[in-house]
Specification:
The chain is mainly α and about 140 residues long. About 60% of the residues lie in helices and about 10% in strands. A two-stranded antiparallel sheet has the order 1-4. Strands 2-3 form a two-stranded antiparallel ribbon. The relative contact order is 0.18. This is EF-hand domain-containing protein. Pfam families: EF-hand_5 (PF13202).
Length: about 140
């Protein structure tokens, strides 16, 4: 539905940095500013109309969370994140950083609510006209 596993895996590495809380002056904030919501257009635009509705984005995030939660316990642990980004340079550090930035209650795992917090905030920021849809123009970096 959202592309093949290798495409999604590569996107996940980028998304781990692009959608995980900004660190002032750091690489993660710069990466997000450089990519905007454009990476999501390819994978979350289910009807291929060059925009992402809030519903499409939510369905995409739900699907990705289920894929990441390989043991189906309702949360994603570091080992599950590492499996998703294995083979990438610094996979262990990528998983650890993503977990550290998003594990709000510090229990060493991500709940669905923790997983979607930053991406949904990014969606809201990108939706500059408030129509609950991010157009191609709104998705471009630094358009907010």
């Amino acid at each position: 539905m959202f592309g093949n596993k290798s495409t999604i895996g590569v996107f996940t590495v980028a998304a781990l940095f692009a959608t995980s809380g900004a660190i002032a002056g750091g690489q993660m904030g710069q990466t997000r500013a450089q990519s905007g919501m454009l990476p999501y257009l390819e994978v979350a635009d289910a009807n291929k109309d060059n925009s992402i509705t809030e519903a499409e984005f939510s369905r995409y995030l739900q699907s990705r969370f289920k894929e990441l939660d390989t043991n189906s316990d309702g949360s994603v642990a570091k080992v599950e994140l590492k499996e998703e980004v294995k083979g990438a340079d610094g996979a262990d550090q990528t998983a650890a950083t993503f977990l550290a930035l998003n594990d709000l209650n510090r229990d060493n795992k991500l709940t669905y609510d923790e997983y979607v917090k930053d991406p949904m905030s990014e969606f809201a920021l990108a939706d500059s006209n408030g129509d609950r849809k991010v157009s191609m123009e709104e998705a471009k970096p630094n358009k907010r």
